[in-house]
Recover the amino acids of this structure.
């Protein structure tokens, strides 16, 4: 089992994000060889930027990913790195992606922070600090 906590020189952290983004026009192109190449590229980029992919599911027209990242990385930066890298290399390798789509990904994405402790527990903990 992986250690839940990570450390840097100045912080101890456990930050996780559920990210979703879609193919432009929701075209169903993440199939077969393209899906395999996409997954490989995602893990390469994750290692390159020191982000841990905990779970990755690829649907033909969108992806779901659960990542853990350092506190110095904004979710937008993580998404930008993954989208830019995969788009550039997939479109170079699979010419059909260039002819069918002006860009591989939509501009938008979904992000939700994932934590081990619930929101209500944090609120109660902070509230209880006054009495100590």
């Amino acid at each position: 089992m992986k250690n839940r906590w990570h450390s840097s020189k100045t912080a101890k952290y456990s930050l996780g994000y559920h990210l979703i983004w879609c193919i432009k026009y929701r075209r169903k192109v993440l199939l077969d060889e393209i899906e395999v190449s996409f997954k490989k590229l995602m893990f390469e980029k994750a290692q390159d930027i020191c982000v841990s992919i905990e779970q990755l599911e690829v649907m033909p027209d969108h992806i779901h990913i659960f990542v853990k990242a350092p506190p110095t990385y904004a979710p937008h930066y993580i998404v930008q790195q993954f989208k830019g890298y995969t788009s550039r290399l997939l479109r170079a390798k699979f010419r059909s992606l260039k002819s069918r789509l002006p860009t591989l990904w939509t501009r938008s994405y979904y992000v939700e922070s994932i934590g081990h402790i619930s929101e209500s527990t944090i609120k109660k903990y902070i509230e209880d600090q006054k009495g100590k």
